[in-house]
Design a protein that fits this description.
- Helix 8 packs across helix 9 and helix 16 packs antiparallel against helix 17.
- This protein is mostly helical and 561 residues long.
- Strand 1 and strand 2 form a beta hairpin.
- The chain has 20 helices and four strands.
- The relative contact order is 0.13.
Length: 561
């Protein structure tokens, strides 16, 4: 737990410095409350550093020394601006002993929860393997030939790699997901406090409901057989960021009109959306809504639309380049724009991986809801992702025709929710891939109702709960929470995790060799590689050899078929 707390504290400081400078560049005066501004900075810092580390993996390994070194350099660079320095100095007034105690207590509670042993199947199957490759070698040519799932590009694995030093061995915990959960929890507590003080706005109400549902779901599932929070699954980060994008839109909209200027607060949701897509492609439905929000509609400002598309292409370029390097496909496992390279993954394997998720190609069947006169043209589009892009653009254009110039920011959330639900339903994957889309619109409705109801009963609450009493509770609650955390921490099953997380599950492997590649694979298919030394495949591999035998596995692999 000590390792988690130290890492999270350092990470919070670095991400805050990076994010606060980005807010300054984006002229985001709409975040006028210090709490909102600090949280927006940290969330923005998460996606920015994730993308930065993913880009860095193209040329360098993401070791803790390199990853942290680059991030700290970027944070120091942020201090060059006098305006940024002045803003950071202003935060000194809120750094009190009670604040530090509360922050430390929350870190301790979340660390107790997330340092438990990881048992999530996919983390053993390929999450930790991908993180190991990135940490030791960066993005590796043809690594998907060892395990097809290593071809899945995620900036979340890049974000996690520098956080796992070699000296901890198999004592690996859910440090990345735990950090996101920590920030989401802090954000939720701040919004709850504002509601109790009658200082809440619509974005606060929305986040309270949205994040409250996710926090409860992820907390409860840690005590079941499917503790996704205690893993390196990117779904956790994606679902929280869906809500953060909605929160930023609601925060920005009433205070910012659409101008022709390229840099404006409206670019923030688009940047976060691109960063979320880099974490996982299930976030693609975020792009149409955030792009149109940035560009403005009726009339559409085509210059801003052009710049918005340019931002998307630029920020997602590292994702496509890593995909090409690892599997010769920019959107692996999709065959869309795949290249014929020496390290290309065999077509049947790519098809098998893609088959695990049902894309929009299924819509062209006899029972398709698409009108029959459109089907012949729809079937001409062989690439499922191209169909997906067309469908999302169509939904966006239809929605943009209905929206009014002076409409409220709530309608953008409805667009994102509709696009997201359409995406998830048509692919028929697990709900965990995009639960955020499904609760987005209901949470918006509940937030609006809650805001109205509280306005009516607030006088009664004020009579029963004075500001003096609330201030007293603010001092007592952290002490009570700390007492609870300490009581849990001294339990026998938690003592072993005081310094480092629980050990990963053990694995028995069979060592094998194909051509000049020496590797291992689990002796039992129900057991995964976890953090076994590289290269470790999930099953025996064939038709693969080293790309450059003199440089070893770090130089990559090629297909001999």
């Amino acid at each position: 737990m000590v390792y988690f707390i130290i890492t999270w504290t350092c990470l919070t400081i670095v991400l805050f410095l990076v994010g606060i400078n980005l807010l300054r560049i984006c002229k985001a005066d709409c975040f006028d409350r210090r709490g909102d501004r600090a949280l927006a900075a940290i969330w923005l810092g998460i996606v920015a550093v994730s993308l930065l580390w993913l880009t860095l993996s193209l040329v360098l390994p993401l070791s803790p020394l390199i990853g942290w070194g680059v991030a700290i350099d970027l944070a120091i660079l942020s201090l060059v601006s006098k305006q940024t320095r002045s803003e950071i100095v202003a935060y000194k007034s809120i750094i009190s002993p009670s604040f530090i105690l509360g922050f430390f207590t929350l870190e301790l509670l979340v660390a107790i929860l997330t340092t438990q042993q990881i048992v999530w199947f996919d983390t053993g199957l390929y999450h930790l393997g991908s993180i190991q490759w990135l940490s030791k070698f960066g993005a590796v040519y043809g690594v998907a030939l060892i395990n097809p799932k290593f071809g899945f590009t995620s900036s979340w694995f890049a974000f996690s790699a520098p956080l796992i030093p070699e000296f901890i061995g198999n004592r690996v915990g859910a440090i990345a997901n735990g950090f996101v959960f920590l920030i989401a929890l802090i954000h939720w507590i701040i919004t709850l406090t504002r509601i109790l003080k009658n200082q809440a706005r619509l974005p606060d109400w929305f986040y309270l409901v949205y994040a409250g549902i996710l926090i409860l779901v992820y907390f409860v599932t840690t005590f079941t057989g499917a503790p996704i929070l205690i893993s390196f699954s990117a779904d956790v980060a994606v679902n929280f960021l869906i809500g953060i994008i909605a929160w930023t839109i609601l925060s920005i909209f009433p205070k910012n009109s659409v101008s022709i200027a390229f840099i404006s607060p409206r670019i923030i949701p688009l940047i976060i959306a691109c960063g979320t897509v880099a974490i996982k492609l299930s976030a693609l439905p975020l792009l149409p809504g955030t792009l149109l929000f940035y560009a403005g509609v009726k009339p559409v400002k085509f210059k801003r639309l052009f710049w918005g598309i340019a931002v998307i292409i630029l920020l997602l370029l590292p994702v496509t380049l890593v995909g090409i390097k690892t599997a010769a496909c920019p959107l692996y496992p999709s065959k869309f724009m795949c290249l014929d390279l020496p390290w290309s993954v065999p077509a049947e394997i790519t098809q098998e991986e893609a088959g695990e998720i049902k894309f929009l190609g299924e819509l062209a069947q006899e029972k398709s809801p698409i009108p029959q006169f459109i089907l012949p043209y729809w079937n001409l589009l062989d690439d499922n992702e191209f169909k997906l892009i067309i469908l999302l653009l169509a939904l966006s254009l239809i929605f943009s025709g209905l929206i009014r110039k002076n409409s409220s920011g709530e309608q953008w959330l409805i667009l994102i929710g509709l696009c997201g639900m359409a995406f998830i339903i048509t692919q028929s994957p697990l709900l965990r891939f995009g639960i955020g889309y499904f609760i987005l619109i209901p949470c918006l409705f509940i937030a609006g109702v809650g805001q109205v109801l509280l306005a009516k009963i607030q006088p009664i609450i004020n009579q029963k709960l004075s500001r003096v009493q609330l201030s007293r509770y603010e001092k007592i609650v952290p002490l009570v929470a700390l007492s609870i955390a300490v009581a849990i921490a001294v339990q026998n099953d938690v003592k072993s995790r005081w310094l480092l997380p629980a050990e990963l599950p053990s694995v028995q492997v069979i060592k094998a060799k194909v051509n000049d590649v020496e590797y291992a694979y689990p002796a039992n298919w129900t057991v995964r590689c976890w953090k076994y030394p590289l290269p470790c495949a999930h099953v025996p591999v064939h038709n693969v050899k080293l790309r450059d035998p003199e440089r070893g596995i770090g130089a990559g692999f090629v297909n001999t078929n």
